[in-house]
């Protein structure tokens, strides 16, 4: 039974007619539209709406209505219908109720493809933006299918792969924004999902192509319907399954690329439209292919009206940010519908190398190597005259500028690595880390709130606030994942959903025009540029405290990684120990997030590298991970300062750019 059929059967007693759902959503959107119309045009003049073509050219209200308001409405309806239709096809072909252009990384691939071509090969856009976007979308689909191959394209693995592709492309887009921001500013504004229009060209572009693609879908409906019977039944009637699936995926990717090329990334409409259609009673494929686009069109219409209302009352929000804010919670609510085998609880049981005995002697040369690396990061740098290793007398005046950055990067690497080791052992999840599970994003949300409530708060207040946000995220994550016995992939999906909400909040804030936003944007990218001596000292203190406390929890970490029942059997107070360890993780993550932003993947890579060295026990892995994490961050900060001198790449962003593909490769190598 496909997940879609399972959902339909579970909701058989829900709404009986999809048109009721569409009418309800459309009715609310219509009320909002009329209210906005009343603000734009006095009700006494509404009679002229029937004669727009004959309206006076000097009537600005009617001109705005004819060339801005009505085209925007048409674009919202067409985009919503296209995305929902694409989601319905993806969900049916992949038998995955969470599949849609955003969760599969299709929209992100199309978006980054358009950015790259706009920057370096603009002549290719002459032949049509949709083809450029389609190439990026197909590449993303290919990557997702490749990393899901070993798990037979299971629903959870495909969604996880798609969201990781989105994170990787997001990091790449951030790099482009740093160096080519002025050249791509219009592209980035457009890709945020703003539906503002100044004519009918985009609406005509979308409607014409949507009509052609919809006709192709209609021709394939009978062949797609047979897939519901299963592969064996489809083969028995002579259907070429691979050709049908490839053609359907190509059509769905084309629909996604059309929307991205026209209005940018609009997330989660492709998820919500088909889901609501099923809930409303669309049982068969034919019904879902008809009602999903209708409901999706009404959803995006309603979301766009909400964005415009916010613009009237406060500041206009990109419609893409509005859909993401509501789509991420919908993703969490849909997770229980998926039943899938988890990843291996830990690679140690299948490890390629045998565990090695821990010898304290290796700590001394490893620590000395880290000191040498930090010294070189302060001394050996690129300047106007090229690379230079300065004598000590010339380095001293620069210590106040370089030393705090290096020390803060080192401390952040230690804290993220320690938090990563603890989280991986608490959840028995080799793919867990503070960044991947959304813990860093939770700390970021709390710190963003503090920035607006008390912008002059001290370092201690900021660390405690970030720790509170990180701890709250941890508790929510554990509460949501408890029913699935902490399935690794589900935990990661919960974290990515939290990161999506954080990204949406940041997008909304960036459009507000607040003067503090450049500082926020630089911090979110993980820059150490603004680190002062007091910040570096505070980070080092927290790192030392975290490293000093961890050996006392070594026994608990070893036992908890075997499961709660085993821990209770030997007398461990699981709740108390877990809360203490979560508090330690929250404190370390918050302090590190203050330095390098919410996404860096050091907390994922450092524990894995320690494990590859054969260090599987808690304390050896934590110590080795801390040294590796510190070295990674110091090296990233040094490369960020010198690689593209005089431009600087934030250390957190540079590590994230490497860590995202590392995560995908790790997932690809994992066997189900």
Automatic annotation (TrEMBL):
InterPro entries, alphabetized: ABC_BtuC-like, ABC_transptr_permease_BtuC
Keywords for this protein: Cell membrane, Membrane, Transmembrane, Transmembrane helix, Transport
Residue ranges of coiled coil: none
Transport in keyword set: yes
Location in the cell: Cell membrane
Pfam families: FecCD (PF01032)
Gene3D superfamilies reported in the protein's UniProt record: ABC transporter involved in vitamin B12 uptake, BtuC (1.10.3470.10)
Main location (coarse class): membrane
Membrane-spanning ranges: 19-37, 70-90, 102-121, 133-150, 162-190, 202-227, 248-273, 285-303, 315-338, 358-378, 406-424, 436-454, 461-480, 492-513, 534-554, 580-606, 618-639, 651-668
Membrane topology category: Multi-pass membrane protein
PANTHER family linked: FE(3+) DICITRATE TRANSPORT SYSTEM PERMEASE PROTEIN FECD-RELATED, FERRIC ENTEROBACTIN TRANSPORT SYSTEM PERMEASE PROTEIN
Similarity comment text for this entry: Belongs to the binding-protein-dependent transport system permease family. FecCD subfamily.
Name of the protein described by the UniProt record: Fe(3+)-hydroxamate ABC transporter permease FhuB
Species this protein is from: Paraburkholderia agricolaris
